[in-house]
## 1
Amino acid sequence: MNHRIRELVRAAKADGPRLGIVSMYDVENNAVRILAATLRAAGHHVTEIYFKDWISNHIFPATDGELDALAKLVRDQGLNMVCVSIRASAYYNAARILTRHLHESTDIAVLWGGMHPTLMPDECIEDADLVLKGEGELALLDLCDRLRDGRDITDTANVWLRMEDGTVKQNALRPLVTDLDSLEYRDYTSHDDKFLIFGGNVIQGDPMHGDPVFQMMGSRGCIYKCSYCYNSTYKKDVYPGQKWFRVRSPASMVDEIKHATSHWDVKRVRFDDEVFNFQKAWLDDFCKVYPREVGLPFEIFIEPKLVSEERMTMLRDAGLVSVYMGIQSSERVTGHLYDRRVKNTTINDIAELYHKLGIKPHFQLIFDDPVSTEADKKALFEMVSKFPKPFDLYLFSMTVFPGSELNHKLIRSGIISEYDIEGVNTRVFYQHRVNLRYPRPVEDTFWISLIQMLSKDFVPVGALRALSRSDTLRKHPWPLIQAANFANFVKMGTTVSKMAVEGELTKTLWRRWANMDTIITT
């Protein structure tokens, strides 16, 4: 073990492990909250540190003052190990800077976990003292128990360690957790050992406590294998042969929601599962238990192939008010590039069904891909132009995760290079959601401007169809960009005003949206 791990072992044997778990740019972070709750339930000391947050559509690098504030907090809390949650490869370089600063200022042992360390552990162990690969609850608990009891930690499952001679001890993965009901609920109610570092300020307390929208997950994994998604890589390369999609019981989910509603006024519930569970027996149970025990309006993420009038009617009657559904791109691109084969006509039928049932859809689209033709962009515009209002659009810029099938497909074909892969490429720091100011071909900006205005109730679809035929605007889209920006400002202002009236405009949301220079397209 290297000298920092040796010092961790010595200090933990004397005083017990004292962990700080750092969430970068994400105050919601489900993983950090479950890890912290798991360790606290076993009697271990955990400090949750929410290090910065994203602002509108921009992720600002850490300042020296913020890094110094983190190091001071680590010292003040008497921590002997810091765990950094890297939920996306885009944060890899940010994690390197943070880790280097902690090493230089405190010489503390740093463990990395999350999506990027799971996919790229060889890369991550070059900077971290320890890497936790795969699901973390039982592995981190095992590591902390061993540290407390003075037992050997070098063979802890899921954990990679940097040894004294520079070699790396790579331990095998333990099996996936199959009983999700056995996991601890996330802790939103304690405040003493939680801190937000933002703008150089250190704010004590849970930054999400009191949020009117309670976000939770009732499952892990996904039943699909979309080429761009990390789930496909986990299922194929990290946990082959194991059941990747697992669900909680409706009773467990309801109990966690009731625990939250007993502490503050929750107005809505959002189930953040990759895709909501539609297994019939489970769905029947949920649609009976949820309205009886909770009764709050709720939102879900759904995949087009799962939509049926029977299922959606059941969920609507149970309290479903809105859905988030990825349609990604035109029929050709979605099938060819993303391995999601759904016809445009099917998407239009689903949009009509949502309108009929009074369920508001939030459709998710992916732009900036390298294969869409002019015909593809026009086909996407035509499809969305037929959606009945109201609906929202979430416009994302294509992200290529390391190790994903999309990564392999585009590299093999010579369409992208390693510099386009997330972690090396940092585009997501400046436009995870599409930003019209981001440099791209004028033709793409033309179609994005038109498509994002289709969701605005006050913009006539007929006028947008007429503008879509303008060769002049296609070559010189500046007037269209200004119109799209104005439409965004109007919709954002209306949305913020409505949320303020309904008591849903939190400090976190205001902080994120207050920067109009990087406004999100909707």
## 2
Amino acid sequence: MLKSCLTKEAAAKMSDRQLKLDDQLCFALYAATNAITRAYKPRLELIGLTYPQYLVMMTLWQHGALNIRQIGKRLKLPANGITPMLDRLEEAGFITRMRDRRDRRIVNIELTPRGAELEKQAANIQLAVVCETQMQEGALNSLRSELQALTEKLETEGETTD
């Protein structure tokens, strides 16, 4: 049996609502993620990217050339989840793959001039989506910080239970 991290009163209240969809943190996060992704979609289509491809491109714009493992770690995705996105980005002419000179097993991903230029076109996309949320800057920063802390806590907890 799991030991509760809540007081008995809080645990009793939660058990009454335990299987109600609208009371689930996971569903609130899932619904918000879908809504945000939908807000990005038409804007990203204008520059020829999907949302997951946009995340890869932002990682490369921020950090420069990285290998597949580094991109996966940054995006919290396995390498096999990134490979199809990289295939499409390469076909579109936004990235190139280069074997590492010291270790041929490592594939480095680099922006092409076209991929670097795309950053200018993408610059206002996040601002447009932020405006669409109608949230104040402080509230957005607080929400982002809370979500980052939650992610870190759950990832750390997952490491101790593996």
## 3
Amino acid sequence: MMSRLILIRPGCTDFDEQQRIQGSLDLPLNDQGEAQLERLLAELADAGLSLVYASPTEPARTTAERLAEAHGVECRVVPQFANVDQGLWQGLQLDELRRKQPRVFKQLQEDASCVCPPEGESLSDALERVREGLERPLKKKGRIAIVAPDPVACLIAAAVNKSPLTEISPVCTGRCGTWVPLNEVGEVPSSADLPAMSAAALKPA
């Protein structure tokens, strides 16, 4: 049976499109992000949500508030779901990081959990606060949505699924504006992988 939790990644920002490390910077949805939000609202129109939790980032809040309004439910911002603080890397494009710090970039690819950006936080530290933030949502009944951008969305999935922090990118990797049910063994295919996926996929077989 699929989980009652739905993880939603908000639409994209200019930094997402430019493959820049956004981290804790608060940027609004761009035009494509707004279009992705409208698609999310349509895809999840019949999801029967009971409550929506959101990362405090602007794209997540905007998405969560619109989703909650559409379902007539409450939207709650969870400070522990703030995006990973990427410190001095924020604003850099991935290619810039690859050129300037090739060894660090290689380590990011091999085991991102061991890397801490200068003046930022490690994925391991961020995971601890994410686990704290999940305590209440995991106790709630009904179908719950959590709206958060990458990479903190990956940490939420890892915490729920009890999976290792492997291959987590510091930027969005093409999953902006998508949603995925979570369960105890891993993420099922997301709406990015299955374009025809609809809220019917949320119902038990």
